[in-house]
Design a protein that fits this description.
By secondary structure, the chain is of the alpha/beta class. About 40% of the residues lie in helices and about 15% in strands. The protein has a four-stranded parallel beta sheet, sandwiched between helices. It has a two-stranded antiparallel sheet with strand order 1-2. It is globular.
Length: about 290
């Protein structure tokens, strides 16, 4: 057991921490040079090739899935949560997944509460806050879940307001007309509030750590050009920020991993040294 800082001067004893987040928590890209990302293989290459036996085709797809699972597992062992837990000398359970939205993280937390995955007396959870423009969607066709192979699956995705980058021009043009950045921010803040209430109701201790950007309404307003003064329900944003602030790890509100990147990997994620230094930094914030 290790005594660590909690919120408002409180201290708790834990022997393990559970982590939720997006690619910045999962350590995406950390092993790309050793294990090339199998999901970057095109659908054309992965389809049944002329003259290929059906059994060989299925074996090739299975090997791809197993390589993907192995890569994710090994990358998590090098991501910042592992370094944080090494500083604190506690066990690390990293449940993060690439592209996760706050809604998907909330769903995973609820699922793990249902499954009694936590020892509430000796464990706590750490939630890495992702971007405001991510949301969970439900897909009815396989190609809508980016080749996951599961029809009807729940999937988080970044709804790119820049439709040219997203590649879905008609969809994105229509979407941006219906949903604004204020709406994204409003939903985002409520999902954080939901996670707090779910954890409090079920006796789960929780920390928030910003990942990509600072957690700050003024920053969101300037960076996304969001009017947070005039829209309906705008007062809720200030109210929610004041409540959520109490669960953000002390001193980390405007100090996300995104601001501590020593060098970017080819697809933009933090390098191994960035993860190590940040994990040590966060661990020392909780150490007594």
């Amino acid at each position: 057991m290790r005594r660590i800082k909690y919120h408002g001067g409180e201290q708790i004893e834990v022997d393990a921490l559970h982590f939720y987040g997006c690619s910045y928590v999962a350590g995406q890209e950390l092993l790309d040079s050793e294990i090339p990302d199998p999901m970057q293989i095109s659908d054309k290459e992965m389809s049944l090739q002329p003259g290929e036996k059906q059994a060989d085709y299925y074996r090739r797809r299975l090997q791809r899935e197993l390589q993907w699972i192995k890569k994710i597992k090994l990358e998590k062992q090098q991501a910042w949560p592992a370094h944080m837990c090494e500083v604190l000398k506690v066990m690390c359970f990293n449940h993060a997944s690439h592209g996760s939205s706050m809604t998907q993280m909330k769903a995973n937390i609820v699922q793990h509460i249902m499954e009694d995955k936590y020892d509430k007396e000796t464990e706590a959870i750490v939630v890495g806050l992702t971007a405001i423009d991510r949301e969970m969607v439900w897909a009815s066709e396989e190609n809508q879940v980016h080749g996951s192979g599961k029809i009807g699956v729940a999937r988080s995705m970044v709804v790119a307001l820049n439709y040219e980058r997203a590649g879905y021009q008609d969809f994105s043009r229509t979407y941006i007309q219906l949903k604004t950045d204020f709406h994204n921010l409003w939903n985002y803040m409520h999902e954080l509030w939901n996670i707090i209430n779910i954890c409090e109701m079920n006796g789960v201790r929780v920390y928030f750590v910003p990942m990509l950007y600072p957690f700050n309404l003024t920053w969101y307003s300037k960076s996304y050009d969001i009017d947070i003064i005039n829209p309906e329900y705008h007062e809720q944003l200030q109210f929610l920020e004041s409540k959520i602030d109490k669960y953000v790890l002390e001193g980390m509100k405007v100090d996300p991993l995104g601001a501590n990147i020593i060098s970017h990997l080819p697809r933009g994620h933090p390098c191994a040294e960035s993860h190590k230094r940040y994990g040590v930094k966060v661990g020392n914030k909780l150490a007594l």
